Amino acid sequence: MAAPNIVNVTTIRGNTEVLAVTTSATAVVTNNAASGKVYKINSLVISNIDGTNAADITVDLFRGGSAYSIASTITVPADATLVVISKETAIYLEEGDALRCTASAAGDLEAICSYEEIS
Q1: Intra-chain end-to-end CA distance of the chain, in Å
Q2: What is the CATH number of the domain that holds 20?
Q3: Model pTM?
Q4: Do 92 and 6 meet the contact criterion of CB atoms below 8 Å apart?
Q5: Tell me: the pLDDT tens digits for 18-30?
Q6: How many structural domains does the chain have?
């Protein structure tokens, strides 16, 4: 687990990942150990696709076997979206880090994450 030096960047690739959020903590983006890359998370949007029921979202940064809370049990109303991370609150995933999501109800929430892979 390291933070690669990105002073001499040769490549920046834009990526978007999607996830049907379940009741188990699941990574929407993972920066593998020894990847030699840094991932800049530009946005994470959670959508509630259930037309009737609200659901809670928990988002964490998983590092070194520990989960660090970014958003903890925030209610997303039915047919609504929640911006958890934006350009103004961007975070970096170092080698070995993962950005994970957990829902209070399976099948209600979807996550869309836009990020840059920097190497």
Answers
A1: 15
A2: 2.60.120
A3: 0.94
A4: no
A5: 999 999 999 999 9
A6: 1
